[in-house]
Amino acid sequence: MRGDIFARKKMNAFVFLGVLILVTLVAIVMTEYNVAKGFTSIPKAVHWGFSNFYPNGESFRKLPDIMMKLKETVLVSIAATSAGAVFALVFAIFGAHTTRFNAVLGGISRGIATVFRNIDVAAWALILLFSFGQNVMTGYFALFFGSFGYLTRAFIETIDEVSGGSVEALRATGAGYFHIVFQSVIPSSIPQMISWILFMIETNIRQATLVGILTGTGIGFAFNLYYKSMNYHTASLVVVAIVIAILFIEYISNYVRRAIL
């Protein structure tokens, strides 16, 4: 029996690998991609990067402006994530199996979260450009909608996983709905929820760079401006600032997670 199962899994793996290779070959043919030229261009790209894409003395004169743009991006990311987390908590309580009012409301909450989660932040930015134009609000709402969808799903799973036993115990004692939510669900789920919020902030700072290119705001706009004007040294300084900011935020997030979990 175990031998048959292993053989079946092995066969499925080979079939999947064969299909993947076939799809790759078809894509190469349809796009007329030159594989040999692609690989041989890598050394040239690396050489160009080391020769042109690095900060120099003149680029550091733009550092104050870069830091202002970076500060704007970080603050917008934090604000959008925090607001999205508040709405996500409400929808998660309605959508979780252990705390929902009824199956219909739970299904609606999960459906809304699924729609918002499966639309990429860049797609949200493009959609919102028609309404708000190129400004900070477009980027804020794009990050907000993406955070709301992702965190709602994460909070639903957290509530069902962490607080299921305590909810059943309180129900057995005759506790009311709001008593269960505020005395059991939120206290037991809040550490894991904070962890998800911190993760979302990290993700949104990365996403905000791309959104900034589309909306003409923040650090993404600064990079796009310097790169398109062929000021590669300053553009590389923008990249360095983004990387340092992401690593710093991640360090703080990991420290907070170790403290609360």
Characterise this structure:
The structure is a single chain. The protein has 261 residues and is an all-alpha fold. The protein has two domains: 2-43; 59-260, MetI-like fold, CATH 1.10.3720. Helix content is 86%, strand content 0%. The protein is built from ten helices and no strands. The chain has helices at 2-31, 35-52, 63-95, 103-118, 121-132, 136-162, 164-172, 177-215, 218-228, 232-260. The relative contact order is 0.12.
Question: What is this entry, summarized?
Answer:
This protein has 261 residues and is mainly alpha-helical.
Tags for this entry?
261 residues; 10 helices; 2 domains
| Protein structure class | mainly alpha
Q: Could you please say which CATH topology of the largest domain applies here?
A: MetI-like fold
Tally of individual helices: 10
Instruction: Give the second-level CATH assignment, the architecture of the largest domain.
Output: Orthogonal Bundle
Strands, helices and their partners?
Elements: H1 2-31, H2 35-52, H3 63-95, H4 103-118, H5 121-132, H6 136-162, H7 164-172, H8 177-215, H9 218-228, H10 232-260
